[in-house]
Amino acid sequence: MKSQKKYILAIESSCDDTSAAVLCNDVVLSNVIAAQEVHSAYGGVVPELASRAHQQNIVPVVHQALAKANIDKKQLSAIAFTQGPGLVGSLLVGTSFAKSMAIGLNIPLIAVNHMQAHILAHFIRDAEQSVPPFPFLAMTLSGGHTQIVLVRDHFTLEVLGETLDDAVGEAFDKSAKLLGLPYPGGPLIDFHAKTGNPYAFEFPKPKVPDLNFSFSGLKTSILYFLQRKTKEDPDFIEKNLNDICAAIQHTIVEILMDKLQLAVTRTGITQIAIGGGVAANSAIRKRLEEEETRKGWQSYIPKFEYCTDNAAMIGIVGYFKLLNEDFVAQNVTAKARFVLNGP
Q1: CB-based contact 102:79 (threshold 8 Å)
Q2: Which backbone phi and psi does 244 adopt, to 5 degrees?
Q3: By C-alpha distance, which of 179, 257, 245, 154 is closest to 213?
Q4: What's phi and psi for 49, nearest 5 deg?
Q5: Which one in 5, 8, 69, 157 has a CA-CA gap of 20 to 30 Å to 126?
Q6: Is 227's pLDDT higher than 90?
Q7: Rg from Cα positions in the chain
Q8: Where does the pLDDT of residue 56 fall: very low under 50, low under 70, confident under 90, or very high at 90 and above?
């Protein structure tokens, strides 16, 4: 099967981006993403609005993905879709569409774990990104998840640690909201931090055992800090925005790197792959490059378009599952909670 050309349509709808991609084996032919601007007015994703927008976007997005790939739907070998984890209403739109199209074309249906897809995005064949060798440590960083995963092969993944409350992307966005920055605020903190002093202010790092994370305490400490400072000077945030952003970002990066160092020490594995939307953060990328020089780590970072939620990463998992003929029946259901290698 591997030597033959297999075309896979992939659908991703776990949160607020509707995405469809077409892959020929492990090569991406198209990767179309429709973002939802409606949430910016609410300072975060509104699940009901997200599911409605997915319903509006999914048909034109799939149509565009097929057109860009220059193939007819009758050429498709299988359809892969995000089964979970994510917002259940959003997942239902993608799941229902994938099931309907698969039964209409009489082709196999492939269910994909969103977090596995972030990790296997590294295996998309692309001249601009290298592939991590097994075994490696994967750190998945997104708005909904923060995990350190030991990856032994494409389908043997062990979660070594994860967040006990807020995810790292949520910590960035909530901190940005406290600063009066619009949603999504994570990229704006990164932008302002570039010209700020990361040591201008100090925030406490949470004491969490083993390889787990916690960011809710950091968010609370930032809230109290800003309340105290703006009481002294109402213009404090405006005067010190760049330094505050730099200090917040520095603290978050230190938390991530401390846990990553502990994982390396415990496993002896120095091959590090990161993924998820927060993997686009410039400070995290820079710090990983520095650790390569200082500690001899080898880091792997996907192209930017494969970091954020996208259907191409769903498609690469679909490709490996297609090789194993790992299909699901039409009674498959979306899962808001869906652990790696779980039932």
Answers
A1: yes
A2: -65, -45
A3: 257
A4: -65, -35
A5: 157
A6: yes
A7: 20
A8: confident
Q: Which CATH superfamily is domain 7-122+308-323 in?
A: ATPase, nucleotide binding domain (3.30.420.40)
To which H or E segment does residue 235 belong?
A: none
Residue owning tokens 């590090």: 272
State how far the Cα of 318 lies from the Cα of 145, in Å rounded to an integer. 21
Q: Is the peptide bond before 85 cis (omega within 30 degrees of 0)?
A: yes
Do 7-122+308-323 and 130-301 fold alike per CATH? yes
Q: What is the pLDDT of residue 142?
A: 86
CB-based contact 247:198 (threshold 8 Å): yes
CB 49, CB 56: distance < 8 Å: no
Is 150 within 8 Å of 158 (Cβ atoms)? yes
Q: What is the pLDDT of residues 292-331, one digit of tens each?
A: 999 999 999 988 889 888 999 999 999 999 999 999 999 9
* Look-up of token digits 């990164």: 190
Quick one: pLDDT at residue 43?
61
Of the two residues 42 and 88, the one the predictor is more confident about is 88
- Give pTM, 2 decimals: 0.92
The separation between CA 84 and the C-alpha centre of its own chain, rounded to angstroms, equals: 13
Q: Where are the domains of the chain?
A: 7-122+308-323, 130-301
Work out whether strand 271-275 and strand 156-162 pair parallel, antiparallel, or are unpaired.
unpaired
What is the spatial distance between Cα 267 and Cα 278, in angstroms, rounded to a whole number? 24
Beta bridge partners of 31: 21
CB atoms within 10 A of CB 163: 19
Superfamily of domain 130-301: ATPase, nucleotide binding domain (3.30.420.40)
Runs of H (alpha helix) within the chain: 47-69, 88-105, 114-120, 168-178, 186-193, 216-232, 236-267, 282-295, 304-307, 311-323
- Read off the pLDDT of each residue in 175-199 and give the average, rounded to a whole number: 95
